[in-house]
Amino acid sequence: MVVMSVAKGKKKNLGAIVQARTGSTRLPGKILKELPYGSGITVLEQVIRRLQRCREVEKIIVATTTNPEDDAIAEIAERSGVSWFRGSSEDVLSRYFGAAVEYAIDPVVRVTSDCPCVDPAVVDRCVAEFNTRGVSYLSNTLERSFPHGLDVEVLSFEALASAHEQAKAPPEREHVTPYIIQHAEVFPRYNVKASPEATGPDIRITLDTVEDYALLCAVFDFLYTKNPFFGAREIVELFRARPYLYDINRKVVQKKIFHSLYEEYQEALKILKLQDLNRMVSYLEHKRAEVEEEGKG
Question: How far is 202 from 275, CA to CA, in rounded Å?
């Protein structure tokens, strides 16, 4: 296995790479929406500002696409005083790898641009754990305990380079870390768990849909004026105090990466049941044996 070194001759930096594009399937232009509403501050800028509060992160790079509609993202990065990189819109793994090479990032902190509540303290904790555990990959999502939207991954450049070289399947190229996660025997890993007061796996504060945006606006209305950099503890306390917030995006289905046809089939049934599409549920359940057999192939 050949592994490229990080930009020869350059000093290695621990850096955060934020993948960002405007072409979201479910909510186009979502990271350019204002948060708080009417503030003139975009979702992407909130992510950047929070990462700038991290003590452990030396450099921030926004990795966007070469599509003209993503010029606005590069402009926001420039205006925010952080670096940017442009690459493939479909092969996100190659875009991420290119950004890491260009800026000599090692290890790499992965955060997505649709998580405007990312907690600097959680990021710093993940980095500190990565530095002491001697692993190739660390995450706080392998076993979910934090709210959805506070996701952090930390990986070595060597692991990223190996994934870039070895990953072939489209799902492994469209995302950054599936290949690494699927090969735990090659890439030692560790999962960071939330403290009791920050535990909220039933909370969803990432941005994929209009319902998510409505919820985020409500969360920022409650917390932002008190502390613009509110963290996991404040979020969990807010939801426990105002449980109706859960209802705003309760029917939104979290995006997942599936490793088999049968896993995707099971998720499709859940979504159909959630929407009361019972005739289609009945039809697909009659196809279960066929799907299981095809999945084995």
Answer: 20
Question: What fold, for 13-198?
Answer: Spore Coat Polysaccharide Biosynthesis Protein SpsA; Chain A (3.90.550)
Encode pLDDT of 141-152 as tens digits. 999 999 999 999
Cβ partners under 8 Å of residue 259, min gap 6: 171, 178, 182
Does 297 score more than 50 pLDDT? no
> Over pLDDT 70: what percentage of the chain?
84
Domain edges within the chain? 13-198, 261-296
pLDDT band at residue 11, thresholds of 50, 70 and 90? low
8-state DSSP, 293: H
The structure tokens listed for 96 are 């991420």
- What Cα–Cα distance (Å) separates residue 216 from each residue in 52, 114, 151, 204? 21, 11, 16, 9
